[in-house]
Structures are given as structure tokens and as C-alpha cells.
Write a structure and sequence with these properties.
The complex is a heterodimer. Chain A is an all-alpha fold. Chain A contains seven helices and no strands. The chains are: A mainly alpha, B alpha+beta.
Chain lengths: 160, 273
């Protein structure tokens, strides 16, 4: 329960950061969807229904604060959880390396789906798109390391 | 019943949320004039903290600009730039009038251009995902803002309101791929449509290969799209790829305004409001 609450608060705060302070701290740099990492963490640690609700709500808020089509980001967040369920049968998510690889893979997939669904992909060459997506995912992975480490730590401590 | 729910709990929950997302996504297909209640609520909840952040960061930026770095020079420079921007805009407007006169339009009984009311607003948020070109402003329904109203600055057009909450609104910038504005090249009167490219540039589409367009030409609004009045600056032509076989030129337009550094905007309200 405590873990779920921490995830909710972190997710909602990260959305807020993405909407304004990010542009002040990193002017000229495109916003990275760091709150997506929270959805992945929820998928790793929270098997309960709240992770699905969190994924949907975070997506919906992000759509409202951006120019994304309605339902797209929430659908991608839910899709990520579904993919994690599928991959969970083959990969051990408790390992830090697999978590980092998972974040990279899911961030890249999410970005490509967004670009394809919104026609952005039609305006640039495939090479440019792939480079930008890989770069964004890489930076997101670097930024997600403290978040993953923090949740790895608190998840190992049994809840009272 | 309970045991059925317990047994298929996960399947039901997943189906429910995926269904909600699909319903939400499918609502993009229908053109609605109003922002949905859920979206308005989210904008209303997030607008105050975003406004506070904007105020705080604006204060920090202002302090840095005015007190830390050469106070007097900075101030003078800002004033000169502002007056230069104003003169440039006036010059564009004058050129527009000269061309209009040249076409003998003044022989007609011209209606006095309606003096639309302007409301100034501050940018309190930017696109939270990074792939789209939208901003949030601190004015909404309570300030008579409505969907599809033009957002401009003294340098040119910025975009249009696409979602309106009580005290905040979302603005689609002209550089977003979903934006298109009816435009013409001021020098040659060639008409086209300025479409966003999803980057910091726009593309002037449908310029016939027979038309004369050159780098540096000013692109202005035609006033025909029903959102922007006529003669407002959109940007300048930054690249032209002339085709010999195709029907249209490829024309790239650099917006008049640096949309990444935008802090304040004005919203054009119809005279009635």
C-alpha cells in the first residue's frame, strides 16, 4: 500500500515537472517522458490492480497537458504493462540490468508508437527518427537509474 | 458472482482500462466544440501549481537578467529590441498596405478593419511529452477565451487555442504537425498553407512550381482560415527546393517568433466579446 502511494505521488509530481520546470532547467531540450518509468516500476513491483489504474491515469493527465491525441498515451502505458506481463515469463525483472534494458526497450517502443500514431514519422527520415528515439531513451534510462535504485531498495524492505 | 469476479479479476480490470483508453482514443474521431469535463478538471488542477512554478522561474529569470548581468546595458538592449520588433512589425504592415493600395483596392468601399480586443496571457506550461508543440497559458473560459481563438505576439502569430479550461487553455503552436494556416508570400502573393513540421520550422505547402518564391520572402496570413486576421506575419522563407517535374515547390518557413523562448502571448478576442 505504502509503495503504491509513493508511486502515485512520484508519478504525479514527475508529470508536473515535465510540464514546466523541465523547460526551465533544460531550455531547448525536448521533454522526456520520465513519468513512464514510474509505470514500468509499477509493472515490476506492483502486481495489484492499482498499477493499471496508475498507468491509465498518468497517461490521461499527460495527454491533457500535451498535444497528444486523447487516449493514446494511456493506451501505450497499458500496452507497456501488458508487454511486461508477457516478458515476465521469460525475464527476471528483479535484476537491475534487465530493468535498465526493459526501460530502454519500452521507452523506445512507446516513442515509436507515438510517432507512428501521430504522423510525426512521416516528416523525418527513418534514420533521424531512430537516432532521436534511441538518444531520448538513453537519457531516460540514465535519469531512471536513481528511481530504479530507490524502488529496488524500498521494495526489498518489507512493508509494515 | 463474487467468485467469478475473483477468478477473472485481472482480466476484467485490464479489459476495463484498455476499453476506457480505446473509447478515449476513438473520441478523437468526433469533432467536439468543447473540452471534455475530465480534461478541464485536469487542467484546472494542474494550472495553479504550474502558474506558481512559472511565477517562481520567471522571477528567477528576471532577477538573473536584470541584476546579475550588466543591468543597464541589458535593459537598454531589451528596449531597443522591443522597439525594433515593433518597427519591423509596423514595416510589414505598411508594406502590406502599400501592396493592397497598388491593387487598387482602395477604390472599393473598404470596411474599417475591426479593432479586435487583445488579452495578454503568460505561458505556464509546455508540452509534457516532448513530441508535440503545445503550450499552456494562464487564461481560460473566465477570461472569455474560446476554442480556436488566435494567439499572437507583436512579432507574428503563435498558434490557436485548442482546449479551454476555467483559468487555463492549451495552445497549438504553428510548428505542430496538426497545425495548418492559410498563408501567402507577401512579395509575390502566392498562396499556400503553412503546416507545422513538428520541429522549430514550418512548411509552406501547395506553392505551385510556376510561382516565384525566394529565401527571405515574408509569409503572412490571408485571413481566410477564419482564425487569424489578414496580414499577420507567420515567418520568412528559409529554404526553397524548386522542382522541375513536380507540381509544387518545397518551401520551408522559419517562424517569426522563437517559440521555444516564448513567455507572454496575446489572444485575439472577437469584437463582440
Amino acid at each position: 500500500m505504502k509503495h503504491a502511494l509513493v508511486l502515485w505521488i512520484t508519478g504525479l509530481l514527475l508529470v508536473l515537472v515535465q510540464a514546466m520546470p523541465w523547460h526551465f532547467l533544460f531550455p531547448g531540450m525536448g521533454t522526456l517522458n520520465v513519468s513512464f518509468v514510474i509505470v514500468i516500476v509499477a509493472g515490476i513491483y506492483s502486481a495489484s490492480m492499482s498499477s493499471w489504474f496508475l498507468a491509465f491515469i498518468l497517461g490521461y493527465i499527460l495527454e491533457s497537458l500535451s498535444g497528444s491525441p486523447q487516449g493514446l498515451v494511456s493506451l501505450i502505458n497499458l500496452l507497456a504493462l501488458l508487454m511486461m506481463r508477457g516478458l515476465g515469463s521469460f525475464i527476471l525483472f528483479e535484476s537491475f540490468v534487465s530493468q535498465v534494458l526493459l526501460v530502454f526497450f519500452l521507452c523506445s517502443t512507446a516513442d515509436i508508437i507515438i510517432l507512428a500514431a501521430t504522423r510525426v514519422i512521416a516528416y523525418s527520415s527513418l534514420n533521424t527518427i531512430l537516432t532521436v528515439v534511441a538518444l531520448r531513451s538513453l537519457i531516460t534510462v540514465i535519469l531512471s537509474i536513481p528511481i530504479l535504485r530507490f524502488y529496488n531498495k524500498i521494495a526489498l524492505v518489507p512493508e509494515r | 458472482m463474487y467468485s467469478f469476479f475473483k477468478k477473472y479479476q485481472h482480466f476484467i480490470v485490464i479489459s476495463f482500462f484498455v476499453g476506457c483508453a480505446f473509447i478515449s482514443y476513438s473520441s478523437n474521431l468526433t469533432a467536439t466544440s468543447d473540452t471534455s469535463f475530465a480534461r478541464r478538471t485536469i487542467l484546472n488542477i494542474y494550472a495553479p501549481p504550474l502558474g506558481a512554478f512559472s511565477y517562481l522561474f520567471g522571477g528567477i529569470r528576471h532577477f538573473w537578467n536584470n541584476y546579475v548581468s550588466l543591468l543597464q546595458v541589458q535593459k537598454e538592449n531589451q528596449e531597443l529590441r522591443q522597439s525594433l520588433d515593433l518597427l519591423t512589425e509596423q514595416n510589414i504592415y505598411t508594406q502590406e498596405l502599400v501592396l493592397e493600395n497598388a491593387r487598387l483596392r482602395k477604390l472599393l468601399l473598404l470596411k474599417e478593419q475591426s479593432s479586435a480586443k487583445l488579452i495578454s496571457a503568460e505561458i505556464i506550461g509546455r508540452d509534457a511529452i516532448g513530441w508535440f508543440k503545445t503550450v499552456l497559458i494562464n487564461k481560460g473560459k473566465n477570461d472569455a477565451i474560446q476554442k480556436n481563438q488566435a494567439v499572437i505576439t507583436h512579432q507574428g502569430i503563435v498558434g490557436r487555442c485548442i482546449e479551454v479550461a476555467d483559468n487555463s487553455s492549451k495552445v497549438l503552436l504553428i510548428t505542430d504537425i496538426n497545425s495548418s494556416v492559410d498563408a501567402l508570400v507577401q512579395r509575390t502573393r502566392s498562396r499556400g498553407i503553412v503546416e507545422g513540421k513538428g520541429s522549430s520550422l514550418c512548411e509552406l505547402s501547395f506553392i505551385s512550381s510556376a510561382d516565384d518564391v525566394a529565401v527571405g520572402d515574408l509569409v503572412v496570413t490571408t485571413g481566410l482560415c477564419g482564425v487569424f486576421p489578414k496580414g499577420l506575419s507567420i515567418g520568412t522563407v528559409s529554404r526553397v527546393e524548386k522542382t522541375t517535374l513536380g507540381l509544387f515547390h518545397y518551401v520551408e518557413v522559419q517562424p517569426s517568433i522563437n517559440l521555444n523562448k516564448l513567455e507572454e502571448v496575446s489572444i485575439l478576442l472577437p469584437e463582440s466579446s
